[in-house]
Amino acid sequence: MFRSAAAISGHLVGPLWGKKVGASLTRCLHQTLTMAKRLQAHRLDGIDHNPWVEFTRLASQYNAVNLGQGFPDFSPPDFALEAFQQAISGDIMLNQYTMAFGYPPLTRILADFFGKLLGQELDPLKNVLVTVGAYGALFTAFQALVDEGDEVIIIEPFFDCYEPMTLMAGGRPVFVSLKPSHTPEGGLKLSSDWQLDPTELASKFTSRTKALVLNTPNNPLGKVFSKSELELVASLCQQHDVLCISDEVYQWLVYDEHQHISIASLPGMWERTLTIGSAGKTFSATGWKVGWVLGPDHIMKHLRTVHQNSVYHCPTQAQAAVAKSFEQELRHLGQPSSYFVQLPQAMQRNRDHMIRSLRSVGLDPIIPQGSYFLITDILQIKNKMPDLPGAADEPYDRRFVKWMIKNKGLVAIPVSIFYSGPHQMDFDHYIRFCFVKNEGTLRAMDEKLQNWKAELKP
C-alpha cells in the first residue's frame, strides 16, 4: 500500500543516474529523510557512558583473569538445576503467561519465607511483586515513587545504577559517604570500619527528600550494616517521613558470624520500606533474572502500575524453578544441609584465599563482612607509581586497573565508579575484586599474582 522511502528515492534519481547531479540529489534526499529532531530523551543526558563496557572489552582483549564482574563462574546447586529442567520439560503451560505480578507458587512461598524473617504476615497478591531481576525491582521502584525534583539519599560507595535510575525518574541524588576510620599500623582493615557520620547523614534530609537507598550487605565494600546503624537510618526516615528502598540481594552471603538484619523488620519501618531480593544471588544463577520486591500494599500498588505498563510479566519457567528451589531450601533452612549455610561457608574460604594472595604482592585488602566482593587499598602503589598512562583528570584507580589488565593479566573494577563525580578523586585508591569464583579461576589468579611477586624481588 505504501511505497518505501528507498523506492521513492530510486524513482526520482533513476532518470538522472550517471549524471553529475545524481550523487548530490541522493545526498539531499538522505539528509531530508534523516531526523533533524533531537532523538534521545533529556533524561538520558549524562548517563550514557558505561565504564563496565571498557573493562569488559579489555579483559577479553588481553585474555585476563576476570575478577571484576560480579557473577559466579560455577554451577547453581543441583536442586536448582533440576527445578529448571523440570520447568522446561514438564507442565506445558509453563511455556505461557502466568500472573502478571508473579507466578502464584513463587509469590506464595516468598510471602511465607520472608514473612517469617520480617515479622509480617505477607499477602502474596498485595505484598510481593516478582520482577526481572533485582535490577528490574529497583527500576520499577524509582519509576513508581520518585517524581520530578524529589531528592533521593544514596550512601556511597553505591551500586552504580542507583544514581542514573534516580535521574531517569526526574529525581535529584543526594550523596553521603561511608568513611573509613583510622587503622593502627599493621592492623587488619575491615569493612565495618567504614561508618556514616550521624550528623552528616541527618543534614542530608530536607523537605524534598522522598527516599533513602540502603544496600546491605554493600556492593562494593562488603559492609553489613549493624542494628545500631540501621536504627539510625530508620529513625531519620521516620522523623522526615521518607521511604527506604533496601537492596538486600546479598543477604545470605554474610561471613564471620555477622548477621544480616532487614531494616523492614525494625519497629515502624515495614510501612515505609521496600525490600528487594534476587534469586540470581540467592541460588548462584544470575542469568535467570528473577528478582522481587516486598512491601506494604499502599506502596506496592504503585510498583504494580509501572510493572504492568512496562515488562508486564516475567519468564514463567524461571519463576517456577525459583519457587521449587525455595521449597527445597525451606525444608533444610538452618541445617548444615542448607544451601544458605553451605554457600557462605564456601565463599568465606574463597574470600580468605583471595586476601592471602593479594597480600603476597603488597596489596592491602579490606576484609568484607558480606557480599561477593572485597575492595583493596592501592594507596602505596599510587605513591610509588603515580604517573600511569591516562588522562590527567581520570581517577587513578581507573588508570591502575587498565594497567593491571594489560600488564598483569588481572581484572578488577575501580571503586571510583561507585561514587558521585565530586567524590571520585577522594576514593580513587581502591579497586574491587569478586571472589565468588571457582577453584580454577582462583588458581589462575594465584599464578598471575605469583608472577607479579617475582617481578617485585630486587
From TrEMBL:
<dbReference type="GO" id="GO:0005829">
    <property type="term" value="C:cytosol"/>
</dbReference>
<comment type="subunit">
    <text>Homodimer.</text>
</comment>
<keyword id="KW-0663">Pyridoxal phosphate</keyword>
<keyword id="KW-0456">Lyase</keyword>
<dbReference type="InterPro" id="IPR015422">
    <property type="entry name" value="PyrdxlP-dep_Trfase_small"/>
</dbReference>
<feature type="domain" description="Aminotransferase class I/classII large">
    <location>
        <begin position="64"/>
        <end position="441"/>
    </location>
</feature>
<keyword id="KW-0808">Transferase</keyword>
<dbReference type="InterPro" id="IPR015424">
    <property type="entry name" value="PyrdxlP-dep_Trfase"/>
</dbReference>
<dbReference type="Pfam" id="PF00155">
    <property type="entry name" value="Aminotran_1_2"/>
</dbReference>
<dbReference type="InterPro" id="IPR051326">
    <property type="entry name" value="Kynurenine-oxoglutarate_AT"/>
</dbReference>
<keyword id="KW-0963">Cytoplasm</keyword>
<dbReference type="GO" id="GO:0047804">
    <property type="term" value="F:cysteine-S-conjugate beta-lyase activity"/>
</dbReference>
<keyword id="KW-0032">Aminotransferase</keyword>
<comment type="similarity">
    <text>Belongs to the class-I pyridoxal-phosphate-dependent aminotransferase family.</text>
</comment>
<dbReference type="InterPro" id="IPR004839">
    <property type="entry name" value="Aminotransferase_I/II_large"/>
</dbReference>
<dbReference type="GO" id="GO:0047316">
    <property type="term" value="F:glutamine-phenylpyruvate transaminase activity"/>
</dbReference>
<dbReference type="InterPro" id="IPR015421">
    <property type="entry name" value="PyrdxlP-dep_Trfase_major"/>
</dbReference>
<dbReference type="GO" id="GO:0005739">
    <property type="term" value="C:mitochondrion"/>
</dbReference>
<comment type="pathway">
    <text>Amino-acid degradation; L-kynurenine degradation; kynurenate from L-kynurenine: step 1/2.</text>
</comment>
<protein>
    <recommendedName>
        <fullName>Kynurenine--oxoglutarate transaminase 1</fullName>
        <ecNumber>2.6.1.64</ecNumber>
        <ecNumber>2.6.1.7</ecNumber>
        <ecNumber>4.4.1.13</ecNumber>
    </recommendedName>
</protein>
<dbReference type="GO" id="GO:0030170">
    <property type="term" value="F:pyridoxal phosphate binding"/>
</dbReference>
<dbReference type="GO" id="GO:0016212">
    <property type="term" value="F:kynurenine-oxoglutarate transaminase activity"/>
</dbReference>
<comment type="function">
    <text>Catalyzes the irreversible transamination of the L-tryptophan metabolite L-kynurenine to form kynurenic acid (KA), an intermediate in the tryptophan catabolic pathway which is also a broad spectrum antagonist of the three ionotropic excitatory amino acid receptors among others. Metabolizes the cysteine conjugates of certain halogenated alkenes and alkanes to form reactive metabolites. Catalyzes the beta-elimination of S-conjugates and Se-conjugates of L-(seleno)cysteine, resulting in the cleavage of the C-S or C-Se bond.</text>
</comment>
